[in-house]
Write a structure and sequence with these properties.
18% strand, Protein-Tyrosine Phosphatase, Chain A, 44% helix, 21 helices, alpha+beta, 28 strands
Length: 693
């Protein structure tokens, strides 16, 4: 009510201003009324006053400054408006101006004078406790740079109470942004003007941080300008952070051909190559400018398209984004023009990516991070960069991930030396380097809310490992203790689960049917150390029925370290059938690891061949509990596929990523070491690098 009483006279004054002075006075008064009704801070009032002075409204600006500094803002504000009305309304008679000013002054004075009278009456009363309402973030608040060794503590503090301090920090800068949002001429990208078209030099793009150009995702009517900018800026790398469609909405026009070549304006674009990975796709284009005086020499442009970033959200984990960022830096030549970064609108995801990149560089140069300052700086070059507090919080998560774990990627040529270092370097408490590296994985926190589904009373009896992380699941009867796990090239490529129990076999086959699984990998024996570890869910001969599902044995093959069973799965209600190949690995004890790695390399290769023939639907992988041996198999599958494709490996981040999708994947340091050993065996077997690339 107080805010309304303070603002109503000002809105009345807006109406009067329309009749007298036009849009400048209206604009000033609207800003003034908002600042008073919202009770904005002293610094913001001063800032608005200085801004108004730039519009040559000097008397009004001076009065605003006085109103901000006065101990009685309403009183001084009323006087300032009186003076402003006189100075800005020379056409009005003096008496009319004074009478209007007086009426406005009285209405504004009523609140502070009554408040003062009440305050004098209360001075004789006993002292009472006054409960103040919580203040909104001050636009003048400053956040200082954080030393890198304090980053973990600062991130934990800001994350408390559902990220309240992250929201505060983000909203401080956003208050001013809402009033002053615009695209700035001083940082905009200027195109060469086309003959006969005076407006052809404009594109909605800005230089950011001296190195990048950020731009909205091209539309059909701007795609020619987009490619002209790529050519004129001598750009060699495009970073795309949006999908073409999201939530059934068009987010970006496909500005490249699926195959062959296409011409956009004067730029001819041909697709040379593309590689699809789980989090991003790499496309290589050959572009050529077709000018009136002849065709220019062609150039190679690489597009890195990050596909795991939802609109207005953040990626599931910073691991993929940091890997993507490193790839961008590796691909881009130091002699090339600016990197062009775009999402859909060219502000939210684009700004988040640029901040992560820039602040990581700051960490190396200055041993500190200043997210608040960096965001403020780049918003002076293009407004609204980093759109949401969730994106702002994700920046801190990515920086903390990078600070805690660094770059753990290896070239295969350096693997042998790295293994020697891990087994011979001693860390605190007499741990060797390998144990210290594995300990970082075990220190990962498991979020309790991610385990809620598996811990429901109706589902507890179906679990072997109580701690579960369910990425997908339905309530009660639709629940199965299984998790989707990403592969090297494909999301949800594996289904990690426990060995079926006698009362979960039907659920197990229902899962295989509904997700169109053609490959099952079993890493346990039915009995180990005289204990049942898995129910036999296939027939020894003929067929067996579990609820609506019938499983028929068609044949089996015994290999050196594993056996293969060909099963036919039939869904009873509609009599449809499907071939399922069952790979059963032998020689992996419940405690310990296989004696050698060749058998694991062989079974992984056999499963991959089966997948290529059957359509790359999810692979079911299980041991007894669906964690240790299961996680090790999936980790090795992803690691070896990357070694073949790129000649690179990252055992630490691969296992860490698995554990974020399902806890306890790769349970022991022996299993972790086994991952390294198998990769080394793989490299030794195919010592000629060309053989496995």
């Amino acid at each position: 009510q107080q805010s309304m009483r303070r603002s109503l006279p000002l809105f009345w004054f807006v109406w009067l201003s329309i009749r007298v002075q036009g849009e400048y006075m209206v604009c000033c008064t609207v800003i003034l009324s908002l600042s008073v009704s919202l009770s904005l801070s002293l610094s913001l009032s001063l800032f608005l006053s200085l801004s108004l002075s730039l519009l040559s409204l000097s008397s009004l600006s001076l009065c605003l400054c006085l109103s901000s500094l006065s101990p009685y803002p309403s009183l001084s504000l009323s006087l300032s408006l009186s003076l402003s009305l006189l100075s800005l309304s020379p056409s009005l008679s003096l008496s009319l101006s004074l009478s209007l000013s007086l009426s406005l002054s009285l209405s504004l004075l009523s609140l502070p004078l009554s408040h003062t009278h009440h305050h004098l009456e209360q001075q004789t009363e006993p002292q009472q406790t006054v409960v103040l309402l919580p203040r909104s973030p001050s636009a003048s608040k400053t956040y200082f740079p954080i030393p890198v060794d304090c980053l973990e503590d600062e991130t934990r503090i800001r994350s408390a109470d559902d990220g309240k301090l992250f929201r505060e920090e983000f909203n401080v800068r956003t208050i001013l942004l809402l009033l002053l949002s615009k695209y700035y001429d001083h940082s905009r990208v200027v195109l060469t003007q086309l003959e006969g078209n005076l407006c052809s030099d404009y594109i909605n793009a800005s230089y950011i941080h001296l190195m990048d150009c950020c731009v909205p995702g091209p539309k059909q009517d701007t795609v020619a300008d987009f490619w002209r900018m790529i050519w004129e800026q001598k750009t060699a790398t495009i970073v795309m952070l949006t999908n073409l469609k999201e939530r059934k909405e068009d987010k970006c026009y496909q500005y490249w051909p699926d195959q062959g070549c296409w011409t956009y304006g004067n730029v001819r674009v041909a697709v040379e190559d593309f590689t699809v990975l789980v989090d991003y796709t790499i496309r290589k284009f050959c572009i050529q400018y077709q000018a009136s005086d002849g065709t220019k020499p062609s150039r190679l442009v690489t597009q890195l398209h990050f596909t795991s970033w939802p609109d207005f959200g953040v990626p599931f984990s910073p691991i993929g984004m940091l890997k993507f960022l490193k790839k961008v830096k590796t691909v881009n030549s130091s002699f090339a023009g600016p990197i062009v970064v775009h999402c859909s609108a060219g502000v939210g995801r684009t700004g988040t990516f640029i901040v992560i990149d820039g602040v990581i560089d700051m960490m190396h140069r200055e041993q500190k991070i200043d997210v608040f300052g960096f965001v403020s700086k780049i918003r002076d070059q293009r407004s609204q960069l980093v759109q949401t507090d969730i994106q702002y919080s994700f920046i801190y998560q990515a920086l903390l991930e990078y600070y805690l774990y660094g770059d753990t990627e290896l070239d295969v040529s350096s693997l042998e030396g790295h293994l020697h270092k891990l087994h011979n370097t001693h860390a605190p408490f007499d741990r060797v380097g390998l144990e210290e590296e594995f300990k970082k994985l075990t220190n990962m926190r498991i979020m309790k809310e991610n385990m809620r589904m598996g811990n429901l009373p109706a589902n507890m009896k179906k679990n072997r490992v109580v701690i579960m992380s369910m990425r997908r699941g339905q309530e009660f009867t639709d629940y199965i203790n299984a998790s989707f796990i990403d592969g090297y090239r494909q999301k949800d490529y594996f289904i990690a689960t426990q060995g079926p129990l006698s009362h979960t076999v039907e659920d197990y086959w229902r899962m295989a049917w509904e997700w169109k699984c053609h490959s099952i990998v079993m890493l346990t024996e039915l009995q180990e150390r005289e204990q049942d570890k898995c129910f036999q869910y296939w027939p020894t001969e003929d067929s067996v029925t579990y609820g609506d599902y019938t499983v028929e044995m068609k044949g089996s093959t015994v290999c050196d370290s594993f056996s293969v069973r060909d099963l036919v799965l039939t869904y009873g209600p509609d009599k449809q059938t499907r071939l399922v190949r069952h790979f059963h690995f032998h020689g992996w004890p419940e405690i310990g690891i296989p004696a050698e790695g060749k058998g694991m390399i062989d079974i992984i290769a056999s499963v991959q061949r089966q997948q290529q023939q059957s359509g790359n639907h999810p692979i079911i992988v299980h041991c007894s509990a669906g964690a240790g041996r299961t996680g090790t198999f999936i980790a090795l599958s992803n690691i070896l596929e990357r070694v073949k494709a790129e000649g690179l490996l990252d055992v630490f981040q691969t296992v860490k990523s698995l554990r974020m999708q399902r806890p306890h994947m790769v349970q022991t340091v022996e299993q972790y070491d086994f991952c390294y050993r198998v990769v080394q065996d793989f490299v030794d077997i195919f010592s000629d690098y060309a053989n496995f690339k």
